[in-house]
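Aim 2, interim progress: modelling of the heme C-bound target.
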Amino acid sequence: MKKFAVLGILALLIFSCQQEPAAPKKKQGWTPELDQPSELALIMRDMNSEALNRKAKLENGELDPTLSETLFDMLTAHPTKPHMKGEGFEPYAKSFIGIYNQIQSAEDVSTQIKAHNNMVDACVACHTQFCDGPISRIEKLYIK
Ligand code: HEC
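Predicted structure of the complex, ligand included:
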């Protein structure tokens, strides 16, 4: 039993990059500090759900005009742990934003599907360096 408690605490400490986020807990009066997602984690969650919606639309043959309002703050947002935005984060983020802009400028569905899949490549590229926990989840965003 003790072993499991220790493992649980470790899992909490390393948080989002190592494990899939747990199912939402029941609301309690007190939320431990460690459960608060960072600014960067919130942007990531937004991008992930935006990408899921876009995928559904594109698979339905519709262009998706949605433009993220938070993604462009990725460069300044605070991460859960400083090392998550180590050296080299900025070039990945800038190249990601460039690719994201191609999604917005796509004028037909097949062009937007290509741009969307390029974006997923860019998500995975940065995650390989800085946060490999969510990669299998990110790969589900590809449109085949
Ligand atoms: C420039 C690097 C970079 C790019 C590009 C990037 N991520 Fe992330 N992502 C991170 C880092 C670093 C974290 C950890 C953030 C933290 O915990 O503060 C993260 C965290 C996440 C998380 C976990 C958030 C949570 O609940 O804690 C998800 C899901 C995620 N990213 C999805 C994506 C998706 C989808 C894309 C592409 C649309 C993407 N990321 C693009 C660096 C990146």
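The longest helix spans residues 109-130. Confidence is low (pLDDT under 50) at residues 6-15.
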